[in-house]
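Fold it.
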Amino acid sequence: MQSAYQVKRGIVEVGQRIYRNGYVVSSDGNISVRVSEDRIWATPSGLCKGMLTEDQIVLCDMDGRKVSGTLKP
């Protein structure tokens, strides 16, 4: 099982790749990883997918409510 940091690092890397290859423009879309029955790590709202850092990734419940993090999911 991956650590929370590893999952968040993976999300950041995917964001960089899809931005670099022109699949998203700035803050388009969402990248998320389901890590348990009721938890998802997700990119925050309104930030460029190609410029994210691990500390900006937000933990949410299955209804999209923030469980952990400082930014809006």
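The CA atoms of residues 27 and 48 lie 4 Å apart.
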